[in-house]
Structure to design on (190 residues):
């Protein structure tokens, strides 16, 4: 089965490809000739995933899934949430985003947070949504050199390592994207 994953993010692509069974052929936006950045104009994580999946279906006529992920920090009223990738005002600048988040958390005792991934699937004209959540805390300073985004400052509940200190396999087993992907794979395997 051939499916498009609506992303230009190579890190996300690798993470998702590692989770898919081998009988799926995964294509990225680049693979289908889509060079544009699909606007993420929704006010929710779910809404952005739906926009991206529908865009590929409408513009390219291909079955597709898209994800959107946000980090929600409880004491910051669930910021950065839908704005996680551009929290510091610069798209996908992880260092600036983490710095802003850590500054805003300064003085807060409650550092609980969660990662949330929503995956929208458009397949043969039908739409489906799958959501994965990983609870944890924001640590005081970055640790680890793996992963991407907020991984160096997010420590999942029950672990003493941040996502950036874990292997891709470890992160996928407990992480938000892995949970949402397993729901997607179960649906596709029916």
């Amino acid at each position: 089965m051939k499916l498009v994953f609506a992303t230009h993010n190579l890190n996300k692509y690798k993470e998702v490809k590692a989770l898919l069974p081998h009988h799926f052929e995964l294509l990225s936006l680049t693979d289908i000739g889509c060079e544009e950045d699909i606007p993420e104009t929704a006010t929710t994580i779910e809404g952005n995933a739906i926009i991206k999946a529908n865009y590929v279906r409408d513009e390219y006529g291909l079955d597709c899934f898209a994800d959107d992920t946000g980090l929600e920090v409880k004491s910051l009223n669930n910021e950065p949430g839908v704005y996680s990738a551009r929290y510091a005002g610069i798209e996908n600048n992880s260092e600036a985003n983490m710095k802003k988040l850590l500054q805003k958390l300064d003085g807060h005792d409650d550092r609980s947070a969660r990662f949330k991934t929503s995956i929208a699937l458009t397949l043969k004209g039908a739409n489906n949504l799958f959501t994965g959540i990983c609870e944890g805390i924001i640590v005081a300073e970055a640790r680890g050199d793996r992963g991407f985004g907020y991984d160096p400052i997010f420590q999942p509940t029950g672990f003493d390592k941040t996502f950036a200190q874990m292997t891709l396999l470890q992160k996928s087993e407990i992480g938000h994207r892995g949970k949402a992907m397993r729901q997607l794979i179960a649906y596709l395997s029916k």
Q: What stands out?
A: The chain has one domain: 2-188.
